[in-house]
């Protein structure tokens, strides 16, 4: 009997089955094609809700610091100097050896090391720093410091400083002395843990954690009076921001970027300090690959100390600071097992081992993986304490620091602490403390396109020149050490000095 307009050509059980199969198909398609706009929109909505829940969960546990440190400790295993688990590198599929038959190189604009040097000179002469709207005692102090630095008396003999590793030892020494005597830093107390005022001291992102911890514990440079501050520090952790708010598999950093934007706007509206110089006397540190993206917008006006010091992502030579990527295996003993063999006991010409992240490393392996003079590996068998990897660094003349997905690598600092001359193959990467260190005096720079000529480049360096670079590596490495109690010219002081140095030399007259 017909009771309406709808007719059911199938029995009810069959209809239910069709509905179940249809819903299942939708779920499968959603998972398979989650990158399509319609599904991405749904994903973002769900991501926002999940991120909010995750954030609340972390903040509710923020008081339990020991729990936080254990739960959020960097999971980087240190095998072959590769990247940490859960980093942006580990989120991508690793390139397998079988995929290396036809490696491809990207064709991108490249700024050579000599062009970077010219850019640094240009930044000093352009004086594009924004002065305070009203002349203050702090401005006068900075301008006087700038004059003293630029007119520093010539020195070429110092028991602690080795002149050849610096661009200008006289300016560096004078600047450091003034900083040590005068600098005052105001730290914003706003922001909840763990994203703010908390740190991770082990793993590949340790630099931002160590600096944040030592800065907040410092008695010499920190001031409670913002009116006497030469610099303003925004103490956030890019690694903890990622661990707290990033939603796995969401393929979106938008909520992290928006979070930092909101925090910055809050600081600007709450305090008058930003508007005095439009943020040019503010600074922050970030070591995660995503830190450049998280510190865009108005934060671009600040001095950004970044591990991912990539010119293509907005790093400004002469303003921003290249933060060393230091892999710390033990926070209790960050200086464990440093040093290496003398030049006569380094039979390996060059060494590299690690995951085949990005487009450069597969090319390196493809060209030199079978060369008997070099040791170029995709990965090495795991040995407790990463001893195999470390022993190779200690026994090689040159250590290859090839970029992965991002330009920075812990191998640069590892090379230094194991007395191995670094060979940096990472276009547009600005090496640490570029404003004061003469990197060309103790490191080799090879453009990515010249990997095919790598061995020729290294063999063209005379033994005398190599020994000279080796000795300079031994001198400069002390400035890349973390100490639980900071000492003069160590990594904490070098980071702070580079921030100070760039701020002072960019000052305009009032």
Q: Can you offer a commentary on this structure?
A:
This protein is 39% helix and 8% strand. It starts with 11 loop residues before the first helix and ends in a 5-residue tail after the last helix. The protein has helices at 12-32, 37-60, 65-72, 113-126, 137-150, 169-182, 206-217, 238-245, 254-270, 273-277, 291-294, 360-368, 387-394, 411-417, 454-459, 463-476, 491-505; strands spanning 185-187, 231-233, 282-286, 303-306, 321-322, 348-353, 374-377, 396-402, 421-425, 444-445. The protein is of the alpha/beta class. The strands form two sheets. The chain has a five-stranded parallel sheet. Strands 7-6-8-9-10 form a five-stranded parallel sheet, with helices on both faces. The chain has 17 helices and ten strands.
Brief description of this entry?
By secondary structure, the chain is an alpha/beta fold. The chain has helices at residues 12-32, 37-60, 65-72, 113-126, 137-150, 169-182, 206-217, 238-245, 254-270, 273-277, 291-294, 360-368, 387-394, 411-417, 454-459, 463-476, 491-505, and strands at 185-187, 231-233, 282-286, 303-306, 321-322, 348-353, 374-377, 396-402, 421-425, 444-445.
